[in-house]
Specification:
- It is a single chain.
- By secondary structure, the chain is mainly α.
- The chain is built from 8 helices and no strands.
Length: about 230
């Protein structure tokens, strides 16, 4: 059985967005003389996002790999909040999301079926995000986490994004966009101390662009799938 190249499923605009994101990431790496692990993590990350925006489970698989790489990088910068968030929350949630997406395909396509965000799920999300943020704040404080307030805010936005991704909601993208803004600030602080961290700033800037596109893409998917259901009925 032949395996279709996943990049062939991207539109010209999506392929252009991925190429532009990768080019900016590589350029930042070359200009700042960053380390290869950071470059690898950034390239895996922007690739994951374009497939997540497409609603393809492959994106979740790449998110798992990115979380592992990013956790190692965060540890080296004493961003323990990021390390705990990505290794202890984002990566496990990506595994759960991958299973969920594989179980809920849209018809015979490679895309996931978009789900509605119910009031019950939204309430659970708010309560659990508050509990997780409050609990981890004291853990991060005890560990001497750098930029504690920003790292704590990152926990909140990351948790919300992970849950919304698991819920198969288009709003996951805006939650990740909010997290991107937080992380841009976090890595700007690191880059001021060490230019080698600069690629992470550009990486998350590209993440922001991709996540905003992801919201647009998922809203289109939601509308298209909803129209197909109404037509079938």
């Amino acid at each position: 059985m032949s395996v279709k190249n996943p990049f062939s499923l991207l539109s010209r605009g999506e392929l252009g967005l991925w190429l532009a994101s990768a080019a900016v990431t590589v350029a930042a790496f070359l200009l700042s003389r960053g380390d290869w692990l950071t470059l690898c993590a950034c390239l895996v990350g922007v690739t994951a996002l374009i497939f997540v925006a497409k609603g393809m489970p492959l994106g979740q698989g790449l998110t798992i790999l990115f979380s592992l790489l990013y956790g190692v990088i965060s540890f080296s910068q004493r961003y323990y909040g990021e390390m705990i968030t990505y290794l202890g929350m984002t990566m496990p949630m990506a595994v759960l999301a991958l299973v969920c997406w594989l179980r809920h395909p849209y018809g015979d396509t490679r895309q996931v079926e978009v789900a509605r965000l119910t009031a019950g799920r939204l309430a659970f999300l708010a309560l659990s995000a508050a509990a997780v943020t409050g609990g981890l704040y004291f853990v991060l404080k005890a560990l001497g986490t750098a930029c504690l307030p920003v790292s704590t805010l990152s926990v909140t936005t990351s948790f919300a994004a992970c849950m919304l991704t698991y819920y198969r909601s288009p709003w996951y993208a805006l939650a990740y966009a909010a997290n991107d803004l937080v992380l841009i600030g976090l890595w700007v602080a690191a880059a001021l101390k060490s230019p080698a961290s600069a690629p992470m700033v550009f990486c998350f800037a590209m993440f922001l662009v991709n996540d905003l596109y992801g919201f647009v893409s998922w809203r289109r998917m939601e509308k298209r799938q909803g129209a197909a259901v109404e037509k079938a009925a």
